[in-house]
């Protein structure tokens, strides 16, 4: 088992990467001296595959564990879905020492974490991510929340998990499109933080399906991505400064997601589009070499991810949507722009014109 410490002063916790690891959930939670009542939240497909194993592990460790099943999909990441978790928590008579366990991808993790942050003013929370995207990004760092019709993750809270348990074996049943979505976040880490990881991925012939990755590369992807996120959030828990770099590709990506109703592109695909745009903006501003932008785009394409805007999306609507982004400060949109592979800068000096020009090029290329 590979263990990474997330050293946040108020509540440090561990990321445990173990294959197989799901059957150790109860054992690892027992070490945290949590209350006996546990509500496991999942979606129908994930619970069918892994729910019984997780519940059995919890019960074997002496926990009184039951489940709450929510619909799958970003379009259900709403306060209505969170209300269902509250209802289950009330029916179960959860106490402040009780624990919500998120078994699923980023959507389940975000909603369960938000419910944990707000039920009884805060109960324990454990992440058991089942998608690559959740393993390397969404499950770590304590960001929780739901979407508003006008923007992604506008309603939320910081609430750190007590444990993140990653079992790489569950990725074997992950649909190929979802695996590719997770690779977008991995590429992000290579661009913003870990040039060595970026080079390792460049050396792989294919990145679009897990079966083309060697076991060593997959383990490195999990270890180094989780370590990168742990390093950043340990230095900046609530996005006062450094942590904003984790939003690389997300500024325009979130706008694309919300404007297409969360049904045309998934989160990873939107982030890929956003990274292409951010790199091109950086090139236009003289911050990044065109060679490094080409390297990034080649890696995105190798992972089978889009590099062009979805058909029919309105560029002016994207620019307008940027103003509702959570990273807006004093009315100025903060962009995370690369300066080289492995390093980025945060800036609010980007005007609408270069953004518009880059987006028009990304649309015209696809015609």
From TrEMBL:
NAD(+) binds at residues 106-110, 130-131, 143, 152. It catalyses: 7-phospho-2-dehydro-3-deoxy-D-arabino-heptonate = 3-dehydroquinate + phosphate. Pathway: Metabolic intermediate biosynthesis; chorismate biosynthesis; chorismate from D-erythrose 4-phosphate and phosphoenolpyruvate: step 2/7. Binds 1 divalent metal cation per subunit. Can use either Co(2+) or Zn(2+). Keywords: Amino-acid biosynthesis, Aromatic amino acid biosynthesis, Cobalt, Cytoplasm, Lyase, Metal-binding, NAD, Nucleotide-binding, Zinc. Its cofactor is NAD(+); Co(2+); Zn(2+). This is 3-dehydroquinate synthase.
